[in-house]
């Protein structure tokens, strides 16, 4: 495995966990990331990949009042993003807008469009409808799922509906189905559940514990990828929720994050606490009913699904994002605040 | 026109040509037969001979070209030539005239010769006519007499026939008395057409009488056919006669066949008895040959009888071979079916051999009688199937044994909840694999070494089957292992949350056993089996060489190597998963931001150490002790040790939050200079390697958990205390102290980073609390044990 020497790096001042692709920026490949520092003043960095792809340029640096646990960019307005933050004891979530002409301001401040302050518990994440303009927003805390109706111009957000799942299940995250605006998958301590947002009822569930991260395959319907602490990466077909259609070994320690490539439907990226980012090629899953990895061991399946392992990190990697504009580029963020942008172009030919 | 052979000077030749061209209608043809030698000369003179000759032009040409002397010479030449031509012409005319005269003479002679012929011909015709008229006269005078003679002859024949028919009943009666059935049938058949034509009118009585006689004959014939005492020859004759009488022989045939089939089923029963007898004999004593000789002899006799019957039938109904062949083959098939049933039970090769031998004997006996059935070939095919079944069943039994060895203990443990030894499981299963395989091989060798003709032919096939069998067997074993290890995985995951059950733990042990067993198979069993196969099962080749040998030890080794690694990793995964759960509970339950001051080491530490202890015990039973420290270069994951110990202590005592920022900077700096400490090294099949991998993975999980909440000062101090307490026992269990130290430090640093007010406990207090905990455990241990 080659080292990560091909990647370009960018250092944040503090530790950080989350990075997101600025989806609405059609002119540049840019990422947005925020720091996680309990005691210092936290920052949001807007980073752009230079036109030659050789450098990472800091486009904007904004101070953020609290440490950022989750950050997501708005898919239709490049200046809007959401954060989930914590001030030690309490949690909050907000929609922010990067001020216009921020380059000319001396110390630009983020404009807070609105706060999503209906939450009681620990907020886990905020989800935007992943493919296009949609005025709804989902926020998930430990016990409750909220559907917000967002009006950017009026700078308001209203709870449209909410559903409490009870104390026993601990919600830990979720993903919005890019193929179905009404379906959202939420991860629990012991299962993944798919909710219908119109009725706020559970429609499907996969009994699987310890799911850290979840992502829909944006190219194929019903396909869901999960990252689990010890069991690596599993690919699921929601129509067959009993067993995963494929298992990938994942990382030496926990697999923290997993992201499907927005363009090449078999490419999967995962980040782990063993300070590695792994690039996987899922087997073509159109027709096979592989029930268990071990039982079907035909030679064709012996192909190593691991395309590359990027190991140029000093600490656990928590943040991971593909670029939508240039789908062969991804950004990763390790806990020590290092952003590394890599290209997977050398591996595309092997598909 | 022909060029003559006689030599001719050019001039004469030219002249002849010219003349002939004069006679021939087409002037262009005339020069064609010229020889090429004369041609050039002709061309120079051609001008003068051609039709398109232009005298003026010729003259001009000559005058222009020649001098006077030449012209004069030319003139003389020409004059001579002309004279020559004249004489030639005269000669030709004369010759032709001569020929014409002789032709006229010949014609005249022919005319005089023909004149006298006509009168002769007329005389001849007259004579022929008179001969014909005489012969006609003779014919007519003889005709009447001949007709009369013919009529008389016919009447005589008819009368003789009538006489014969009237005599028939009597004659038949005589035949019956003297048992000359063949003659009787012949007579009757001879009279048949007449009976058919006149039976209803003139010969009614006669017909009735003879039919009665025939009925008796048929009855007698039938009786003869069915009586076993009659000679086969006689029976066959009877059958032929009956057939001639248009008697429905088919039904008789069917009845006889039925009889045969019945005797077949009797035979069948005996085969069963035989096998039963041999089963009994196995239990009773080793003297199988004696104990089974009695039923075998009885069986043989009955088979011989059957074969006799078959032959008789065959002779009686010569065209019924197909049915007989089918019957005999049925018998063989049934034999082998019984064998197949028998093979499904657990039998050793000696018993199979005995059964096969009996069958072969039967086959040989029957083959003598019924050669067309090709019974040896047929039974060879059937034997192939039987042997195949046998091999398959042996392997499936072996698989079953091994799985029993593995699971029985598992099950027993589940029921009783009694302490069981993984070591025992490992040893029994090892033995089951190796000994079982050796036994199987021994068995097969016995079959191979037997000189029974049936099996000698199958030698190659058996070798292939055995090789293939092992290949498939190990593949199946691998699958079975996976099944065993995979069966409980999902329940264990689900239940893991609610109950860390005993069964779960036992199951992890099983996975560990599987891992070690796979290694054993790869390193010990496969080489032994390969050796054994090479020694006595080489060759084969029915499969064809392009496929290569059926048994590929390399492939099997590879399968089991990867399987072993898989199981080891799975074991580690299962174990770390349990610890992870423990840690998760520990870190998600309390409200760390409102944590109370630490009073004692938290009990999760005990649980953690307990788990490690259990793992250590399991591992000790199964895996060998590692001899060396693990290799550093096998690392596949790394993390930098960011802080050295003294530095950290110093920093932590500095409670000043203002310094936190510079501390982070320092950490980064330190990271740059500190060498990387490998955390995730390749797992080896040693106790130390497995335990330390689990410890390291658990500590890494601990670090990850610590990074998630936010601590107040007391929470941080609690973590500090717990980690401090863990330090000593962990170092005792793990060989790689540096990695453990590093990871424990990382946990404390992680906690301090997530702490609002990271002031560590004073060392004396820390020490005191740890001592208190140690004392408490010391108290508990004697009371518990």
Textual characterization of the structure:
- Chain A: This is EIPR1-like beta-propeller domain-containing protein.
- Chain A: InterPro entries: Beta-prop_EIPR1-like, EIPR1, WD40/YVTN_repeat-like_dom_sf, WD40_repeat_dom_sf, WD40_rpt.
- Chain A: Belongs to the WD repeat EIPR1 family.
- The complex is a heterodimer of chains A (351) and B (785).
- Chain A is mainly β and 351 residues long.
- Chain A has one helix spanning 345-348, and strands at residues 8-11, 16-21, 30-35, 42-49, 56-64, 67-73, 80-86, 91-97, 111-115, 123-128, 136-141, 144-151, 156-164, 173-176, 183-187, 192-196, 201-206, 211-216, 223-228, 232-237, 246-248, 255-260, 267-272, 276-281, 306-310, 317-322, 329-334, 338-343.
- A 4-stranded antiparallel beta sheet of chain A has the order 1-28-27-26, with no helix packed on it. In chain A, strands 2-3-4-5 form a 4-stranded antiparallel beta sheet, with no helix packed on it.
- Chain A is globular and about 55 Å long.
- Chain B is flat, with a radius of gyration of 61 Å.
- Chain B is mostly helical and 785 residues long.
- Chain B contains 27 helices and 2 strands.
- Chain B has helices at 10-23, 39-49, 55-65, 68-114, 117-178, 181-198, 204-226, 232-244, 249-284, 288-291, 293-316, 321-344, 349-369, 375-416, 422-449, 453-456, 459-487, 489-498, 502-536, 553-588, 604-622, 645-653, 660-673, 687-706, 713-733, 737-753, 763-784; strands spanning 638-640, 676-678.
- Classes of the chains: A mainly beta (351), B mainly alpha (785).
Biggest sheet architecture of chain A: 4 strands, antiparallel
Model regions low in confidence, pLDDT < 50 over at least 5 residues of chain B: 1-6, 27-46, 277-293, 414-419, 488-503, 628-661
Query: Beta fraction of the residues of chain B?
Result: under 5%
Broad shape of chain B? flat
Strand count of chain B:
2
Coarse shape of chain A: globular
Pfam families (chain B): VPS51_Exo84_N (PF08700)
GO cellular component, one term (chain B): GARP complex
InterPro entries (chain B): Vps51 (IPR014812)
Biased composition (Low complexity) (chain B): 635-645
